[in-house]
C-alpha cells in the first residue's frame, strides 16, 4: 500500500478502489487529502475479484488506525457497500463512470443501500468531494484541521465572489446583487 509521502504518521484514511483503472478518478480524493496534510493509503481491493481480501481489509481497517474509508468503483459497484457491512467506520462511496456507461449504474449501485448499512455517496466521479468530506469527518475531533477547513471555505467564497465580479463586468447594465463588490 502506498502512503502519503508528506506525513510520518500512519494513514488515517483508506482510499480503495475496484481496479487501478479507477485511479484517474480516485486520485482527486488523494489530492484533497494532501492539501489538508492528512495521511492516507491507497490500493485496489475488489469485492468481486478479491472477496476474502476485501472482507479482511474492511474488518481490520479500524484496528489499524484508519478512521474513514473512501471506496470507489465502477459498474456493479459493490465495494463501498460491502466494506460498510464489515466495518464500523464511515464509508464514502465514489461512483466511477466507465467507458460504456455514464456512471449512473455505479451511482445507483452505491447509493441504494439497505437501511442499517449507510454509505455516504458523492456524485459520479466526485472523488475530490469524498476527500473533503473525509477531512470534515476527521475535523470533528481536530480543531486545527477544522480551522484549515474554514480557511478553505473562505478561499472558495473569495473565488466565487471573484466570479460574480467577472460576470458583472461582462454584463454591464444588467442588474446584479453585487455580492463581493465591497472587497
Ligand atoms: N465495481 C467493481 C468491483 C467491486 O465492486 O468489487 N471490483 C471491480 N469493479 C470495477 O470494475 C471496473 C472495471 O475494472 P477493470 O478496469 O479492472 O476491468 C472498475 O471501475 C472497477 O471499480
Automatic annotation (TrEMBL):
<keyword id="KW-0658">Purine biosynthesis</keyword>
<dbReference type="InterPro" id="IPR033747">
    <property type="entry name" value="PurE_ClassI"/>
</dbReference>
<comment type="similarity">
    <text>Belongs to the AIR carboxylase family. Class I subfamily.</text>
</comment>
<dbReference type="Pfam" id="PF00731">
    <property type="entry name" value="AIRC"/>
</dbReference>
<protein>
    <recommendedName>
        <fullName>N5-carboxyaminoimidazole ribonucleotide mutase</fullName>
        <ecNumber>5.4.99.18</ecNumber>
    </recommendedName>
</protein>
<comment type="function">
    <text>Catalyzes the conversion of N5-carboxyaminoimidazole ribonucleotide (N5-CAIR) to 4-carboxy-5-aminoimidazole ribonucleotide (CAIR).</text>
</comment>
<feature type="binding site">
    <location>
        <position position="19"/>
    </location>
    <ligand>
        <name>substrate</name>
    </ligand>
</feature>
<feature type="domain" description="PurE">
    <location>
        <begin position="11"/>
        <end position="160"/>
    </location>
</feature>
<dbReference type="InterPro" id="IPR000031">
    <property type="entry name" value="PurE_dom"/>
</dbReference>
<comment type="pathway">
    <text>Purine metabolism; IMP biosynthesis via de novo pathway; 5-amino-1-(5-phospho-D-ribosyl)imidazole-4-carboxylate from 5-amino-1-(5-phospho-D-ribosyl)imidazole (N5-CAIR route): step 2/2.</text>
</comment>
<feature type="binding site">
    <location>
        <position position="22"/>
    </location>
    <ligand>
        <name>substrate</name>
    </ligand>
</feature>
<dbReference type="GO" id="GO:0034023">
    <property type="term" value="F:5-(carboxyamino)imidazole ribonucleotide mutase activity"/>
</dbReference>
<keyword id="KW-0413">Isomerase</keyword>
<dbReference type="GO" id="GO:0006189">
    <property type="term" value="P:'de novo' IMP biosynthetic process"/>
</dbReference>
<feature type="binding site">
    <location>
        <position position="49"/>
    </location>
    <ligand>
        <name>substrate</name>
    </ligand>
</feature>
<dbReference type="InterPro" id="IPR024694">
    <property type="entry name" value="PurE_prokaryotes"/>
</dbReference>
Amino acid at each position: 500500500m502506498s502512503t502519503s509521502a508528506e506525513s510520518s504518521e500512519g494513514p488515517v484514511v483508506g482510499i480503495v478502489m475496484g481496479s487501478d483503472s479507477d485511479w484517474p478518478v480516485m486520485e482527486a480524493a488523494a489530492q484533497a487529502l494532501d492539501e489538508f496534510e492528512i495521511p492516507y493509503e491507497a490500493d485496489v481491493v475488489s469485492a468481486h475479484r478479491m472477496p476474502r481480501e476485501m472482507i479482511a481489509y474492511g474488518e481490520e481497517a479500524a484496528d489499524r488506525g484508519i478512521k474513514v474509508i473512501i471506496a470507489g468503483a465502477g459498474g456493479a459497484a459493490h465495494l463501498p457497500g460491502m466494506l460498510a457491512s464489515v466495518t464500523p467506520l464511515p464509508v464514502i462511496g465514489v461512483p466511477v463512470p466507465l467507458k460504456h456507461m455514464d456512471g449512473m449504474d455505479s451511482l445507483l449501485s452505491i447509493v441504494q443501500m439497505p437501511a442499517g448499512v449507510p454509505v455516504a455517496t458523492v456524485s459520479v466521479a466526485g472523488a475530490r468531494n469524498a476527500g473533503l468530506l473525509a477531512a470534515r469527518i476527521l475535523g470533528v475531533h481536530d480543531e486545527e484541521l477544522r480551522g484549515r477547513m474554514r480557511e478553505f471555505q473562505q478561499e472558495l467564497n473569495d473565488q466565487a465572489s471573484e466570479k460574480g465580479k467577472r460576470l458583472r463586468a461582462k454584463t454591464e447594465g444588467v442588474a446584479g446583487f453585487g455580492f463581493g463588490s465591497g472587497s
